[in-house]
Amino acid sequence: MKQTFLEKLDYFFVLRPMLFFPGWTTLLAGYLILDKESLFFNLSQIKDISFWNITLLLLLSAAAMGASFLLNQLKDIESDLENKKLFIISEGYISKRMAIVETGILVVLALGLSVLFSWTVVWLTAGFIVLTGYLYNFKPFALKDAPFSSLIANSLMGWFAFALGWAAVNNLSWYIVLNALPYLFLNTALYFFTTLPDAEGDRKSGKNTIAVRYGTQLTIRLAFLLFVFSILAAFLLKDHMILLILILSAPFFISTIWNYSVGAAVRTTKFVILFFAAAICFKIPVFLILMLAGFFGTRWYFKKRFNYDYPNFKK
Q1: pTM for the complete prediction?
Q2: CA 20 to 30 Å from 7, out of 55, 159, 181, 184?
Q3: Cis peptide upstream of residue 22 (ω within 30 degrees of 0)
Q4: How far is the C-alpha of 24 from the C-alpha of 41, rounded, in Å?
Q5: 129: left (phi > 0), else alpha (psi -120 to 50), else beta?
C-alpha cells in the first residue's frame, strides 16, 4: 500500500526531534563556553561564528540522538504501551525491522559527519552512541534499569553532548570537566523529573528507575538539590549564561518542591529547556528559527496525523 506524506513523516518524527533541542543546547553551550561571561554576542561576534560548522555539528548530533532514541523505543515497547507514550513503534506505525534499518543509517551518518571535524569528535560521537544506544538500553548492561547506573549514564550523556561542542573548536582538557559541571547538575535534575510521569508504568513493567525506587517526594528533593549545586557551580565559574537560565528557572523548581507535584515537575522541565534554548538564541539568533520550526512543525504533524496535542507547555 502506498504511504501518504504524513505516514512518511513517521520516519522523521519517530526520532523525537523535540528532544534534539535539550541535546543541542548543551552541545552549543560547550561550543560557546569560552564566552561564558557574556550574555549576548555583538554583531561582529555573530559574523565570526562558523554557521557551516554549527550546521554540521547539529546534524551529526541529531543523527546520533535519533539512533539512540530509536534503540530506546525498540527496547521499551512494553513499557511505552503501559505508559501510553511513544506509540509510533510500539503501536506498529513503523515496523521493528524498518526502525532497525533507520538506526543503522543514522549511526553511519553521525560517524561520517564527525570525520569532517576531528578524530576526537569521532570518538566522542561513537562513545555517545554506544553509551546512550547500547549500554543504556540492553543487557547485560541495561544501565537505565537501576537507579545509580541510570544516574551516572544520564550525567555522562550530558557531558558527551557538552564535550562534542567543545571538541568542535577546542582541544580536550580538564577545563571542560570543570566548566561542564553546572550544565551536568541541571541536566541531571531534569532527568530526575522525567522519571516521575512514567513511574507507575515502569513499576508494572519491572523497570527500577529513580522514581520507582525512591518515590515522588525524594526524587523531587534530589532534583532540587542538584539545581542548587548548579547555581553554586555557575556562580563560582562565572558562567553568566547558565546563571540567567537558573534564575529564570528558580520559580518553577521552587513551585515543584513546594507542591511535590509530578505535573509541576513536567512543566518545570519544559520551561527550563525553553529558557536554555532562549539563552543560546542570545548568542546565535538564527537558532530561534530552528526552535520555532521544530515546535510548530511537530505540533502540526501530531495534530494532523494523530489528533494529538504535542508538544505543549501544560503540566
Answers
A1: 0.90
A2: 55
A3: no
A4: 19
A5: alpha
C-alpha cell at 92: 506498529
DSSP assignment of 161-220, as one string? Answer: HHHHHHHTTS---HHHHHHTHHHHHHHHHHHHHHTSTTHHHHHHTT---HHHHHHHHHHH
Q: How far is CA 253 from the centre of its chain?
A: 19
Grid cell at residue 291: 526552535
pLDDT mean values, one per 10 residues, the chain (315 residues): 86 95 94 81 68 94 97 86 80 94 98 96 96 93 87 91 92 85 94 90 78 92 97 94 94 95 94 92 90 95 93 79
Alpha helices in the chain (DSSP H): 5-13, 20-31, 43-48, 51-75, 77-83, 87-90, 96-114, 119-129, 147-167, 174-179, 181-194, 199-204, 210-237, 240-259, 262-283, 287-306
Spatial CA neighbour of 249 closest among 212, 226, 274: 274
- For CA atoms 248, 253, 258, 264, the dihedral sign is positive
Distance CA 224, CA 216 (A): 12
Q: Is-contact 266 255, C-beta < 8 A?
A: no
Please give the domain boundaries of the chain with CATH numbers for all domains.
5-306 (1.10.600)
